[in-house]
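Per reviewer request, we include the raw input and output of the structure prediction for the construct analysed in the revised manuscript.
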Amino acid sequence: MTQAPRRAHHLVRSGGRHRRRARNTRWRKLGRFQQALLTPVHLRKNETFSQLGAGLGTSQSTAWRYADENLDVLASRSPGLHKALTGLGEGDHVIVDDTLIPIDRIRANEPYCSMKHPRHGMNVQVITHPDGTPLWFSRAAPGRTHDLTAARPTAVVQTCPPRQILAFANRADQGAGATFRTPYHHHCEQPEHQKQSNRDHARLRTPGERAFAQLKPWRLLRRTRCSTHRTSTIVQAAHTLLTCSHSG
């Protein structure tokens, strides 16, 4: 058993038990382990629900229902912003970055068409530890949303300055707050000390790319075919599988 199915098994078993009691459903087509295994397979391979159900000997609707329930359970275990920043204070720093989760949309869906990336997608903000460990993922916003506009509703801008936490961000986050550090504009026309500052800034932000590199193996996040409202749930569920540990 690999690490991801093992984590999913323990988390879904504990969380799914309460959901079954709330819904008063005792009998299930699949066992607990098979139901827990369904979620990491769905995230990793990005197969259709008909293919997923055929592999486990169940129908398409049952596979969709089990996967949807498991994603909700795993997403509920993802830490919030204040919990993710627990223990950090004055003198500490984090890395703030964003990425575009591609979605299956047509050209007419203009709010989801990113101007920064020539494709349709959902904008997801991330806060990482200086070593690249993802601490928190935001809720997904339409791809056309500006990075600073996407960061304000998630309370990132309101949380870091009061705690005096330095946040190394990109140029799009200029004006976010006094503790946000962004590079200088017009690199070729700058004096040498500003160029050196940009190089140091880029070196400190480089480990932040590891957070998104850990999401790429989950093929479901390479091009999602579900509703845009489920993108946040999928990202938070993947974050839980990546970072949550279970003692057994």
